[in-house]
Amino acid sequence: MAWTIDPAHSSVGFTARHLGLSKVRGLFTRFSGKVEGDPSDLTTVSGRFDVEMASVDTGSAHRDAHLKSADFFDVETYPTMNFVSRSVVKDDDDYKVIGYLTIKDVTREVELDFEHGGEQTDPYGNRKVGGTLTGTINRSDWGLTWNVPLGSGGWLLSEKIAIEIDLQVAENKEAVEEEVAAEEKLSV
């Protein structure tokens, strides 16, 4: 059974520490993906998630431009980041999703926690499933090594990057398009 990611009800975010003091959060605003399998047994589910790197938004145009540059994502050369799941394993009440994350030209296996949000039928009769993927990666494992040493010790940017992906998937692509159109009519 094929499921389509509903971008209007999903988000792809990350968090990094700045100066070791505060957390700076960012989003990728354009992404897509497909999920295959039976949501009544999540261990049968597999999926692919593609993110347009130029859609990064941290709330600072200057910082976003730097992230898009060759110092970080090099979006001219590597416009897309993707995650392809390999397996889903039950972990108490939640799940572990093991897959391959590709950033730039580097692919590494990662393990993400999945908090299953459940299943619902929306007001338009469309079957939806949702949940949250979270995890932490070391950015240098993907060649994202730009940094500045601080005079007091430490670094400008954290090595560890927290990832949070809130997902809602619809049983078919038409359901996603139908709901977006209906919500647009309500907001006018």
Please tell me about this protein's structure:
By secondary structure, the chain is mostly beta strands. Helices cover 12% and strands 51% of the residues. The protein contains two helices and eleven strands; from the N terminus they run E-E-E-E-E-E-H-E-E-E-E-E-H. Strands 1-4-5-7-8-9-10-11 form an eight-stranded antiparallel β-barrel. The longest helix has 15 residues, at 173-187.
Please supply descriptive tags for the structure shown above:
single chain; 188 residues; mainly beta; Lipocalin; 12% helix; globular
Topology summary:
Elements: E1 2-5, E2 11-18, E3 22-28, E4 31-36, E5 46-52, E6 56-57, H1 61-68, E7 80-91, E8 94-103, E9 106-121, E10 127-138, E11 160-170, H2 173-187
The percent range for strand residues is over 45%
- Sheet with the most strands? 8 strands, antiparallel, barrel
Q: Roughly how many Å is the radius of gyration? A: 18 Å
Number of domains: 1
Please name the CATH topology. Answer: Lipocalin
What's the SSE pattern? EEEEEEHEEEEEH
Integer average pLDDT: 90
Distance between the termini: 34 Å
Which structural class should the secondary elements be placed in? mainly beta
Provide a quick synopsis of the model.
Helix content is 12%, strand content 51%. The protein contains two helices and eleven strands.
